[in-house]
Amino acid sequence: MAGVAWFRQEIVRRRVSVNHCLAIKLGTTTSIYTANNIVSEYAKCEQIRIAHKMFDEMSQRDAVSWNTMIAGFVNIGNFETALEFLKSMKRYGFSVDGYSFGSILKGVACVGYVEVGQQLHSIIVKMGYVGNVFASSALLDMYAKCERVEDAFEVFKSLRIRNSVTWNALISGYAQVGDLGTAFWLFNCKALEGVKIDDGTFVPLLTLLDDPDLYKLTKQVHGKIMKHGFVSDTTVCNAIITSYSECGSLEDAERVFKIAAKTRDLVTWNSMLAAYLVNNEEEGAFELFLEMQVHGFEPDIYTYTSIISAAFEGAHQGQGKSLHGLVIKRGLEFLVPIANSLIAMYLKSHSKSMDEALNIFESIENKDHVSWNSILTGFSQRGLGEDALKFFENMRSQYVVIDHYAFSAVLRSCSDLATLQLGQQVHVLVLKLGFEPNEFVASSIIFLYSKCGVIEDARKSFEATPKDSSITWNSLIFGYAQHGQGKIALDLFFLMRDRRVKLDHITFVAVLTACSHIGLVEEGWSFLKSMESDYGIAPRMEHYACMIDLLGRATRLDEAKALIEAMPFEPDAMVWKTLLGACRTRGDIKLASQVASHLLELEPEDHCTYVLLSSIYGHLGRWNEKASIKRLMKERGVKKVPGWSWIEVKNEVHGFNAEDRSHPNCEEIYQRLGDLMEEIGRLDHYANSKVLLHDFL
Questions:
Q1: In terms of DSSP H, where are the helices of 193-262?
Q2: Distance between CA atoms of 332 and 358, rounded to whole angstroms?
Q3: Between the CA atoms of 617, 623, 624 and 625, what dihedral angle is there, to the nearest 10 degrees?
Q4: Which of 388, 439, 568, 593 has the most CB atoms within 10 Å of its CB?
Q5: Spatial separation of the C-alpha atoms in residues 80 and 361, rounded to whole Å
Q6: What is the dihedral of CA 207, 212, 213, 215, to 10 degrees?
Q7: Integer Cα distance of 528 and 508 in angstroms
């Protein structure tokens, strides 16, 4: 389809060239009327360079000539040049009219320069163009698209004639800022005033319907669309598919897609593809991806980025490489959005693909902030904190724009490494750049201080936030839970509930963790059972894992095992590891062996199961079984991943593991360690001597 569009555009360009040649041959290019028409045709088919050249060669120009060039530059997104043409138009003595204002205000709306728009508004008032339909409509549209809906509404009220375009612009403005109530009120007012309802009325309203709670309203709007005869309109159809999918009704989205079989365009296919992915139906997404090509639709950037995202997890991980190969085959691997999707795919697929992600990152010629943030987040999420901090430093040296995603990732890495001083410096940078109100950044700051043992500063950071997001509340509840202050954590939960902050599944993970750390078994049971009945949140795998940990800490292993058997889905490795850890605490070798057998089937290459089971055998003095576990690890090539310790000295992080000799100051460190051990030995000998002397006396 993209090829067809290009072919049509090429036909138009050739027709314009033919008309231009004919005008030269007939000598009519000296006519302002003819020249303006040719310049306009070149501008419309985005041949602005040729249009500009012809404009410069015109012996005579009028206001139409100037307005044509202004509109042409606006339409190709070159607002600065369009504005220069407007200034030149005035300098050369031509009067700026409603068409001039209409075009330049359209450019303002595209680039979001609301201050320039306000200056133009004052000129419109000064020159008496407030009543001009082109200038006023463009002014309203500019304010609406720049999210200045109050100003847009004032312009709307001043209009003598309100047509469908002005109503739609205002409705779209309120839809853009998420004001569902006002947008639908305006829709009803438009209908009451007898102004024609069209596709431009319904599409912005449908963008607001993106929550399961709005499903009934979506059905009602769909009914009105059918009543007004816009079911076959492609733009409206695409918007309906998106609304139904985001309201959680994939069946309705599929029904609309099937009805539109004869009028589908590429956006329709992409909308349905997104619908499958929003509802976690990756299988349907892959089938649709193949089907659209069978029907002659060539995937575009949006299609590829969407389908690549379906290869992140689950049964379709293996198809990621195939999609990467397809992208290379079609010469699209250098397009930044597609390259970014591939980076995200490799980072989320498995632990050994960081190198592939880095290779793609290095191959991108014009990296955007998404490219940088993806790699930074990849380092952070994989526990490669030192690499993340170095990469963040590199971003700063390359003058990459640092946003809330970057701050969240680097603060998490500071938390993982417990580098308090460096984290505080990043916090200062957050304050300097004004990102502290952002819920994700605030959450990371709270997590940093709680992880570094400064729960008081975590609380101060929380108090500085708007407190209207569950993200920051969850972080603080987790912080108090990890500090063993479960009562304060639970008090925060009840306060959060009383303030009507929307609870989510992470809130209950935090609450159950708090119960686990202070041994509130019955309270934990109560929270787990009330999640769905009282709060409409179905328990997930992680909630069951928390409850099993709580029961395990309370040495109620039979209940923990019964809970696993009663789970509505198959337990994953995290659940079994939690129970195995509880078996270690209790010394229940029989249950531990059963759990370990499940884990060795699920994750035969993971060292944790072997280490835990070996530890249990050693604790019980069953050395033969412990030795057999070590032999099994050796046979399967499983190696224990060494634990690391970090220390921060003068903003530099130093990492160590057991008997590590890789540090550049290794000899000096071991020398000092030897001195300390000798000193400890002398002190121990002295203390023992005093005890013996005391006993003798």
A1: 199-207, 215-227, 234-246, 250-259
A2: 18
A3: 10
A4: 388
A5: 32
A6: 70
A7: 8
Half-sphere exposure of 697 (CA within 13 A, CB side): 6
635 phi, psi to nearest 5 deg = -60, -40
**Is residue 653 very low, low, confident or very high in pLDDT (cuts 50, 70, 90)?**
low
DSSP 397-418: HTTPPP-HHHHHHHHHHHHHHT
Tokens of 327: 């992208």
502 touches 540 (CB < 8 A) = no
Read off the amino acid at residue 247: C
Q: Which backbone phi and psi does 155 adopt, to 5 degrees?
A: -65, -40
Q: What pLDDT is recorded for position 697?
A: 47
* Tens digits of residue pLDDT in 238-297: 999 999 999 999 999 999 999 998 899 999 999 999 999 999 898 899 999 999 999 999
> Residues 480, 483, 487, CA angle at the centre, nearest 5°?
50
> Per this entry, what is the length of the chain?
697
What letters, b where the CB count within 10 A reaches 16 and e where it falls short, cover 492-503?
Answer: bbeebeeeebeb
Q: Calculate the CA 81 to chain-centre distance.
A: 34
Residue 310 tokens read as 């379906």
> Which residues have C-beta within 8 Å of that of residue 188, sequence separation ≥ 6?
none
Cβ density class 665-676: b for 16+ within 10 Å, e for less: eeeeeeeeeeee
Q: Average the pLDDT over 469-489 and give the result.
A: 93
pLDDT higher at 653 or 238: 238
Report the sign of the C-alpha dihedral through residues 312, 317, 323, 328, in that order. Answer: positive
Q: Give the integer Cα–Cα distance in Å for 389 and 409.
A: 9
| Residue bearing tokens 């500090």 | 483
pTM of this structure: 0.73
**Residue found under tokens 């046979």:** 635
456 burial (CB, 10 Å; 0-12 / 13-18 / 19+) is exposed
Residue 610 amino acid letter:
Y
Return the pLDDT at 353: 77
